[in-house]
Specification:
Order of helices and strands of chain B: HHHHHHHHHHHHHHHHHHHHH
Number of domains of chain B: 2
Distance between the termini of chain A: 74 Å
Order of helices and strands of chain A: HHEHHEHEHHHHHHEHEHHH
Helix content of chain A: 40-55%
Helix content of chain B: over 70%
Number of strands of chain B: 0
Oligomer: heterodimer
Strand content of chain B: under 5%
CATH superfamily of chain A: SGNH hydrolase
CATH class of chain A: Alpha Beta
Low-confidence stretches of chain A: none
Structural class of chain A: alpha/beta
Structural class of chain B: mainly alpha
Distance between the termini of chain B: 32 Å
CATH topology of chain A: Rossmann fold
Radius of gyration of chain A: 22 Å
Largest sheet of chain A: 5 strands, parallel
Amino acid sequence: MKKKEKDILSTGVVLVVFCIIFTLISMLLQPKYMTELEEGSFISQYYREAGGHDVIFLGDCEVYANYSPMELYRDYGITAYIRGTPQQLVWMSYYVAEETFRYETPRVLVFNVNAMRYSEPVSEAYNRLTIDQMRWSGSKAGMILASMTEEEQFLSYVFPILRYHSRFDQLTQEDFTWLFRVRDNTFNGFHLHTEIIPAGALPAERVLPDYQFGDICFEYLDKLRLLCGENGTELILVKAPSLYPYWYKEYDAQIREYASEYGLSYYNFAELTEDIGLDFSEDTYDGGYHLNLSGAVKLSRYFGSILTEGHGLTDHRQDPEIASVYNEKLQIYDKTIEERIREQEDEKDR
Amino acid sequence: MINLIIFVIGIAVYAGYGISVLYLLAVTLLSYLAGRLIPRHRWVMWVSTVLQVSLLLLLRVRHRLPYQSIIAPVGISYFTLQIIAYHVDLYRGRYEPEKNLLRFGLFVTWLPHIFIGPIEPYPRMRAALEERHISVDHFLKGAVRSLWGLFQKLLIASRLGVIVSAVSADPDRYDGAFALAAMLLYAVQLYADFSGGIDIVLGVSRMLGIRMSENFDAPYFSQSVSEFWRRWHMTLGAWLREYVYIPLGGSRRGRLRKFRNTMAAFLVSGIWHGGGYLLWGLIHGIFVFLGDSFKTKSKLLNRALTFLLVSLLWSFFIWPDTADALRMAGSVFTVFNYNVLFAEIGGMGLGPGDWIVSGAACVLLGLYDWKSKSLRARFCTFSPAAKISVICLLALTILTFGRYGIGFSASEFIYSRF
């Protein structure tokens, strides 16, 4: 082998080794979101389950805490997945929907409208929880560009080491344990909470200087509506029954008007708590901000009947292939609930 | 063609700093024209020099001037000294004026060095531009040098700066042991920042095929203050020697004249750094004049004492108010709060990991300085793959252990404000 060829070959080997080490270090330094801030891994859990869902939920914590796809299946045979992430803003929901349509075409897409109140990025930390573990595609790039705060740089999403290098002295066992693998900590996107913290005194309702949703929110809601239309998917707007932050009547009116203008269904469950049977002294795990398991079961049952009766979704419980998958999931789901309740009781006894 | 591209890119980058790019372009053009005139109209040198020195003086004495954003561009201290040297040399008839405007433009505005130097003599820059040779080997050597600069900046200077800033922000609370710690850490921070910046400049220039002057030669291994000044900011030292000290007579005609000339050179150095650094310059001048008078037989002791003395004098840089600087330097000898320092330093912004990284990086920097010439010579003998391995290793280390990202401004260098 000539010297020049040898040089080129050895340089190539060096560069390959560099790329491997660089990738490994980047992976090691990136937060795993397995035991702390579990919400950061929600977005990536979908990829192992993508396909075959009748209903996809989009939105912030008001979707992944409040609806249980397992209950929708148990009671109505509806196959659903929640692609919710913390503080998922309207444009984020749009790009998540765009990505979802690459994997499947659900019959219904449920969008929780709470995020309409935010017309600009909230914080880098929230952006990271949604974007970091998303697979690379035009949708991810679009989401980054739409969501970045002033201090953020696109490159730090491409090379996470630029953002997370300072974790070098904060690495824990979790970073090594979950370096090459992940575990599901949701049930089809539902984040299970069995604790009960009754609703107490909530912050007083503030008078806002302006209740009008931002143009950018409507712009992305339009895009979401058109995207659903192009794919033959029905878009349903919902507002979860949280006691706080307040869903002002001015907010509600704007969504009602929008839904009526485009012939969309809109369900404001905050107004239907009695019909749903919610009792905020036992159906919330954080004092009224989100529902716990008991509340989510009630809401899912209520919404399931709407989806079945009002939107013609099929009962898949007699489909052996789907049933075998979901029955297995239900077993794990029920077992996990049992364990969580037992742990809580043990803790109380201590 | 490459010269034109580099010039345009340089001006475009400079334009990012604001409208002062117009001043830079105007000064470049006027200095070029003045240079052409000086051989025939020698008074032009005096007019040009007086104007430029006056502006620099005004900027140093009065911090706010009318049209400050235009007439006080970033890097003015560096390119002004280069232009003055060029005009004085033409006046002395040392070489012919540059006829090529683009080449002169590059001499003044060469992007890598305009912000922090080195202060390049014109003949050297001209030769470098004429002999420019872009090659893979030069590129790799330049890349290593630049990365080494970034290593110093991001692993050492950015970290130590956290403690120094905390101490300097509250002189009433942090004195005595804190002040001493800040001075010692600042000495290292400033060196890592300035020398790191210069390494980046030299590295990028090398990647573009240009070899520029060295600015440091392991200054903290000096055994006296006068030796320190032969190893620290060498291009400024050379400029002061060539255009202040020697024209005044240098060391000829007795010790009194030598003292006067030394003090004059350090007075200019103090003024060049800013109006508040006069005393700092004069004290250094006294120690340089005294030369080796305080040297002991122990090299190690000499080095340690020189380092301590120089660090103590950096207090004028840490506390811009001269009274504060003197008070803090004095507190080192009067306030003994070392127990408080050890109890509190852990909570001043750096975690254990930061201390370990910066400590290890300082050891590496010291070892490199100790053997820099042989290490560089050794690196030249490496195969391309070995050179790329060094580059990759440095890049990985910087990316992982560097202090950068949100909340940090790695592009700001301490010496770019002078």
